[in-house]
Amino acid sequence: MTQALRFVLIQLSAIVLSATIVGLVRWPAIIWAVLVAGMSFMASLRWHDGKWWRYIHLVFPFVVLLALFLPVDPLWYLAALVLSWMLFGGVLRNRVPLYLSNTQALERLAEQVPQGARLLDLGAGTGTVLAWFVYHRPDVQADGIEFSWLPWLFGRLRLARSSAGWLHGDAFAADLAAYDVVYAYLSPEPMSLLWEKAQKEMRPGSLLISNSFDIPNAPPARVCDIGDWKGSRLLVWKI
Fold first, then answer.
1. What is the pTM of this model?
2. Which domains can be identified in the chain, with CATH numbers?
């Protein structure tokens, strides 16, 4: 069961249970929000993996209550939905949020990329990795693919005058066979799928490098500490 589906089920259960209680004693709506927030928060301690889900459960009922009482034109909600999809469309498709690699990560990554290699950045965001390699490692042919429209458009403008290849599409539909190094800063959810794809498509001796996220039951050949405030690591697998 995906984390998003768990969120929906927990919220619905808390809403039904709290609505029954509130309906019986006729408490005001704010009490309903407090009950839903409390119930869903407690449930998330057991049923959600990431700590940040707990705070979404805690805040969500109050956001809904605020939206119901504010005199906001519904078109603004539609605009917010469209904007969110354009910015975070990868979350819905592959459960991959928008992560941006910092300078320390890029420096460590460059140490792993052989001279004259061809590099593919899966889920390339706003083109940060490609822009860095174009400037600091011009010997590397860097390509990237991004699904969400707004980050892709920003990257398109950013890389317009560079030699980097910039594609719009699903990262898991990209052909990995032509690349010496594939770099991914995704999320824990799709890592098993990425490993299967890499084993099928990448050439022997090529490198798969993940920022921060492990592949279950596949120990990396080496781990490089990035040294940032998050304690991030680069995990390197040799195909």
1. 0.74
2. 3-71 (no CATH), 103-238 (3.40.50.150)
